[in-house]
Write a structure and sequence with these properties.
With 555 residues, this protein is an all-alpha fold. Helix content is 72%, strand content 0%. It is built from 22 helices and no strands. The longest helix is centred in the N-terminal third of the chain and has 38 residues, at 29-66. The protein is globular. It starts with 28 loop residues before the first helix and ends in a 6-residue tail after the last helix.
Length: 555
Amino acid sequence: MATAVAPGERRHVAVPRRGAPHAAPPTRPARAVARLTARLLRRGTAAMMLGVALYMVVEAVSFTVGYPDAASRSALVAWGQDPTIRILSGPATALDTVGGFAVWDSGLILSLVVCAWAITTTTRVLRGDEAAGRSELVLAGAVPAGRALLAQVGVLLAGCVGVGAAVGAALAAGGAQGEGALAYGAAIAALAATTVAVATVTAQLLVSRAGASGAAASVVVVAVLLRVVANSAESRAWLAWLTPLGWTDQLRPFGENRWGVLLVPVAVTTALVGGALAVRGRRDLGAGTLSRRGPPRSRRWGLRGPTGFAWRSGLGTLLGWTAGIALSAGVVGAMVPTIEEFLAEDAGFQNILVVIGMDTSDLVRGFLGMTGTMIALAISVQLAFRLGAARTEEASGRAELLLARPLSRRRWLTGHVLGAAAAALLLAGAAAFATWAGAAVAGADVAATDAALAMLGPLPAVAVLAGLGVLVLGVAPRLTVVVAASVPPAAYVLELVGPLLDWPEEVVGLSPFHHLAAVPVEPFATAPALVMTAVGIALATAGVRAFGRRDLAGA
């Protein structure tokens, strides 16, 4: 209703002064949460997209180099029908094409990498923010908890689409058929989205980030085992419909391209996210549906110093990684007899292995050495996340509480570095034992010393990569996880792609993996190992010193 103004009166209207700041436009709270989440995840998601794209490029180049003619591709198709190979790689579809080979050769590894990324990213956003207190500040505003969760999940799912798009685009650029590349990219995006939904549910059920990550990882392990059972016989193939890793097999990219299969992950993801929203509406901030009743039991171990505390705080995640790496290494050991037969008869694949540096004079030991390098890559990524945990302690302000006591910054970060070194030894040792045990069960002639050399030999390269991560933490802390988690895959890809493309030795030599001896086929190269270990220690020392001189940096 208009307000009357008496004759002779003047209505005074406030006019902003020239140059005065204008009021900020109203912002929808949920949209602001989504923008904040996207800002937190943009670097990690971009690094993941780059990594999977490079992986697909490597697969395309490997197929072109290793199988240049129809005869070699026909032999590859015949091997793809082997029942033992099918257990891990899945049913071979269009194996004589670039895209079909990439799906068959990279499917399991790429799926596990994508699942690990989805789990760590989701629990970091959903549980990490609650632990750091950022969620409390957000929910103190006008946004309900359910709507904030939905906005965060929406950004995570958009990241999954980006990862799938990177896979499809890289395959298409590498010469794969367009529709098949689109189908495989959609399958990877669907797998990542389903894993995000699973981690979203576990983040509502369990209080800690480590617990939520461990529960989601357990679901992935069960999914892998279920896919193995489904691929073990035609009579059990229907089990593939019950596991997210089996939906890609049912989609059959570069074959029938059964697009209707994608309705399954869409329905499952929708149901899981809906369940997570329902659970979120019933729990308090910082609590979980399955949280323990009563005060937690006090445990004093690991509280006497920074090294023990760093070990204690990351023990749950470390045990999960140890179980996953040991399981993978055990499967590799059990597959040694089949792999030996496959490599002995497939000259094309041998050519690929020779180009990327594997010594094929002893197929079994050469294969173990190559596997050890891949395990070293996984260890490097795990150490990157351990450094990320130290960075999270700093960004959340918890490290400030410790450093207010008589504890120097250098000693605090040194504790995390020593804990990371011990974790690397534990993971490599578990992989060595599991490889030997799996080979022994399968009846393969693999000595324990060969397994140990294959898994422990690449650790000097891991030291260089981990030292670089510590240096970044000391100099540019906000880039810690991005650099520490993306450089190891880039170095590994450089070692694979460089020889295939005849890149100069100076370029390929930038990868620490390039300077490793082909143990256990070749003797352990002591001099390069000592040099790389010294470089890693020097980088870590420089990072610790830089951390001691700079101010603590928030998120």
